């Protein structure tokens, strides 16, 4: 395409992404599924189409998406549920890849075990983007959100590592389990080390990160640095990106400035919005390409290959979740991972001690249906070299799995979660936040006592007293809120007329100030630069207003 055509195509894609998000907000349907349908619709219309370039996707799209997801994840929660996360992101991915590999090699004529395992590795990792978006909107409990998020972060690394090993075997003398196992562990351990190296290198760059723009530039470059470092030494670049993101996200409060955190969060939300929309549009647009490649295969061969791939993908996940609940706890394989607080711990800094509690039937059902596949599956399968037998058939199988899970499971996940009655306890979450707020304000009051005890002048006394009154008012508000939450009978956050009234009054006063500044600007008494500075102050004040939780 010419430059002008490319620009028009990009603008049209952005317009579609915005439109599908608007429809998603109005209807409650997942944006990922809507964008995929839009991509398919465009693909069957006459006109230029965009073919998925796996190298570009794996190098320029997947690292920032995974890094952003890792920044938004909780390292402590993932560690708390580590058994479940490892079971789903490593063992289940490996089992899926092997079963599909053996099934394809047995039932599809001319297919090799290595090629089948490559297909299994490509379709094994669920894409958490669609499931998380629907799950959060449906109000799933935080435990399930953590499991979906943790699985989605680590399963890509497992699958792509298996895929690399399988491709090497397909190009070589065949598939050797000892050799493949050795390569897998080398790539995985190397990816972890590479991610840690980048994360701790970023920590030492703290002086450069005091400037907001420099901090954002470093943040945007970090996933690519981790990926390139790992790939240059032939280890897992995806795992390096995830590990770097988890560590940096965990240390963000200690090693970055407040202004940088606010802006970095906004920047990554925009990156996610555009890249996620783009990849789901690309998925739909691959339909003509994968269908046109099937002319050399019989209907029976296509049906067999698709049946094996889709069947293993859909059935193994719930079977795996059910069977792991039946294992004895002594094997350390049963899923769950709900934290139990040590009996001898006291105070707010209690140390969690892992106690594996089996998932209940509703949780197993929800996790079973949270297995939507995405662009990583297509990008991965498109990396197969032309020498791999039945390459075109493997492309189609992967595409069908993505469509079946993304549309079938994606569109029905929210109704299923609602039917199961799986909702987060909003009262408990609000109580936890308000307890933390109260503790933080009390720590500030204690610090004021220490400052007042030191030698200081009258000006400091006035400032200390003024701040003390503000903090005491805030602490009293939080305590009243906690009393209301303690008396709540349901899992919904109770309304507080006083709390709502206080927020409404503060928003009204901020809006009045903003309108007056605009009148000053329009009258020529304030220039635009001054308006932007003062408006930014009001915007930050308004942004800091808490919601009713």
Automatic annotation (TrEMBL):
Topology in the lipid bilayer: Multi-pass membrane protein
InterPro entries reported in the protein's UniProt record: Cation/H_exchanger_CPA1 (IPR018422), Cation/H_exchanger_CPA1_bac (IPR004705), Cation/H_exchanger_TM (IPR006153)
Domain Cation/H+ exchanger transmembrane: 15-418
Cited Gene3D superfamilies: 6.10.140.1330
Superkingdom of the source species: Bacteria
Subcellular localization(s) per the UniProt record: Cell membrane
Transmembrane spans: 6-23, 28-45, 85-107, 113-134, 184-204, 224-249, 300-323, 364-387, 393-416
Main location: membrane
Pfam assignment, any one: Na_H_Exchanger
Keyword hit for Transferase: no
Keywords: Antiport, Cell membrane, Ion transport, Membrane, Sodium, Sodium transport, Transmembrane, Transmembrane helix, Transport
General function of this protein: Na(+)/H(+) antiporter that extrudes sodium in exchange for external protons.
Family the entry assigns: Belongs to the monovalent cation:proton antiporter 1 (CPA1) transporter (TC 2.A.36) family.
NCBIfam families documented for this protein: a_cpa1 (TIGR00831)
Identification of the protein by name: Na+/H+ antiporter
């Amino acid at each position: 395409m010419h430059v002008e055509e490319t620009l028009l195509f990009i603008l049209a894609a952005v317009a579609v992404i915005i439109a599908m998000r608007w429809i998603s907000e109005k209807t409650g349907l997942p944006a990922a599924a809507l964008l995929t349908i839009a991509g398919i619709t465009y693909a069957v219309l006459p006109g230029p189409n965009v073919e998925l370039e796996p190298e570009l996707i794996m190098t320029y799209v997947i690292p920032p998406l995974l890094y952003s997801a890792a920044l938004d994840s909780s390292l402590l929660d993932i560690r708390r549920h580590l058994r479940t996360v490892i079971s789903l992101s490593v063992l289940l991915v490996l089992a899926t890849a092997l079963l599909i590999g053996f099934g394809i090699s047995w039932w599809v004529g001319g297919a090799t075990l290595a090629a089948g395992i490559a297909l299994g590795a490509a379709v094994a990792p669920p894409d958490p983007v669609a499931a998380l978006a629907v799950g959060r909107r449906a109000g799933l409990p935080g435990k399930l959100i953590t499991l979906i998020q943790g699985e989605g972060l680590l399963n890509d690394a497992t699958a792509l590592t298996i895929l690399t090993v399988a491709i090497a075997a397909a190009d070589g003398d065949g598939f050797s389990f000892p050799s493949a196992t050795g390569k897998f562990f080398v790539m995985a351990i190397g990816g972890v080390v590479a991610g840690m190296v980048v994360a701790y290198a970023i920590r030492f760059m703290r002086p450069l990160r005091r400037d907001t723009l420099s901090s954002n530039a470093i943040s945007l470059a970090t996933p690519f640095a981790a990926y390139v470092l790992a790939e240059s030494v032939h280890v897992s670049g995806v795992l390096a990106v995830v590990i770097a993101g988890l560590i940096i996200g965990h240390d963000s409060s200690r090693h970055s400035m407040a202004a940088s955190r606010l802006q970095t969060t906004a920047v990554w939300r925009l990156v996610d919005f555009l890249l996620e929309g783009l990849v789901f549009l690309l998925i739909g647009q691959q339909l003509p390409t994968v269908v046109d490649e099937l002319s050399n295969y019989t209907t029976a061969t296509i049906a067999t290959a698709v049946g094996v791939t889709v069947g293993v993908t859909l059935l193994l996940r719930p079977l795996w979740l059910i069977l792991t609940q039946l294992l004895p706890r002594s094997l350390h394989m049963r899923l769950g991972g709900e934290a139990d607080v040590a009996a001898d711990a006291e105070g707010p800094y209690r140390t969690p001690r892992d106690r594996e509690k089996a998932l209940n039937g509703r949780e197993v059902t929800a996790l079973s249906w949270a297995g939507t596949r995405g662009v990583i599956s297509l990008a991965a399968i498109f990396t197969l070299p032309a020498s791999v037998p039945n390459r075109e058939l493997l492309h189609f199988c992967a595409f069908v799995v993505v469509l079946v899970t993304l549309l079938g499971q994606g569109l029905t996940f929210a109704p299923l979660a609602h039917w199961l009655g799986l909702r987060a306890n909003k009262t408990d979450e609000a109580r936890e936040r308000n307890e933390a707020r109260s503790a933080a304000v009390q720590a500030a009051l204690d610090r004021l006592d220490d400052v007042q005890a030191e030698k200081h002048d009258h000006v400091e006394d006035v400032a200390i007293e003024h701040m003390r009154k503000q903090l005491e008012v805030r602490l009293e508000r939080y305590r009243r809120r906690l009393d209301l939450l303690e008396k709540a009978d349901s899992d919904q956050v109770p309304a507080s007329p006083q709390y709502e009234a206080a927020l409404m009054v503060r928003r009204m006063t901020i809006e009045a100030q903003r309108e007056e500044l605009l009148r000053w600007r329009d009258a020529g008494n304030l220039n635009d630069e001054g308006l932007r500075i003062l408006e930014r102050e009001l915007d930050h004040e308004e942004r800091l207003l808490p919601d009713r939780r």
